[in-house]
Amino acid sequence: MKAVVSLEALERSWQRVDALVAVRNWLHGATLLLLVLQQHWGYRDLAWALWTNLVWTSIAILSASIVLRLAGIDRSGHRIGVWIELVIGAVGIVIGSGILGLLLSVFAAHEPARLLGPNGFINADTLAVLRHTTVRYAPILALAVIDLVFAVRMSTQVQVSPASYLGGHVVKMIGALVVGGVVGIALAALVSVRMAEVGLGVFFVLWFVFPWRVFTKDTVQDQRDEGRPALYAGQRLPLSYTERAGPAVVGITLVLTLMFGSCGLGLLTIGLRQFGTHGLALQPAILMLIGLPVSGGFVVLALLFFTLAASVKRVTVTAEGVVVRERGWVMADDKTWRGRLAATFRSSHWQAASGDYTRIEQQLQPQLRSDGPDSNEHRLVLKHRSDAHKDVVIYRAFHGRHVDALNTYYADLLRVAER
User: Can you give the residue ranges of every domain in the chain?
Assistant: First the structure.
């Protein structure tokens, strides 16, 4: 891996990563659409194919992380903590794939029932299930190869483990299975099975091509793990630091939102269809009564997801001054539900002249952890002359790789004394 020697070089590396993410997403979508149309996969086939892809992609990326670590190519993170995280990730994949497979065996039961049926999967050898689905849906492994190649390439650009991308991949796959199931069932029930196949293909293309990274890009976790100061592309000024809700929180909320929305929509769709077929009857009425509150829960979760995804604290530093913009519940003056709702859709900001800042201070803060080795967080703080509430953290990471370059950059920009 090449060492980053300037802020511009760092930003160029991240621009390449963003381009790689976009190319990978388009390849995913196009490949999956081609497979669905060529193989005539319905939802059950597609669900098990994606389950197979998820397992093999996780195995491949974890293996690549281990190889890069042993070869000395990946030097990111704590020398012991990285191995603990890889072990935890492997255990999580085993448990998660088992739970997901169990759910699919109930809601997407397929032949042979001894392997892919409700009673079959829970009693069958998981390796036997994986062998069967791997042979049956072998073309889906093209997605695993794409993920492996791009994960390794992106990790060499920004000096992080390929396994750091697994969490988002798993969330995206689970969300695709949940929502895709409702799309497939609704299209098959309302139109035709063939239209459901085509609709599923188009749905997954859009799902993979959608820029999911906008929900996690420039987050605190990105800053800590990957050390990215988010330069505006093509410009030396201004340099901005962004804080958003944690990617895991946003991802979990998104999955819950999709689950409630797809379930509510599915119940309402089936209920309306039965009303049209059988007229007023008890069963469709019950489906509608259940579907309406579930859809109401979807609305609440959708609002919560929007709040978490859109909440932001952005610090922009120029030679003229510092501007801080905030949006979200954390900055709401009124803590009632009306105040929080208003804070979701509006933002506030304050600014201070650059002359109000006297120095840039490097801080090293020990982080005590219960789930692994302790670590040190490197912080770069712009100190205000008289108001400590206006001190601005412009960089934080669990390594000091870019602290000196950023320190010099800001000192030159604002002409404040270094310390």
Answer: 1-170+190-200, 311-418
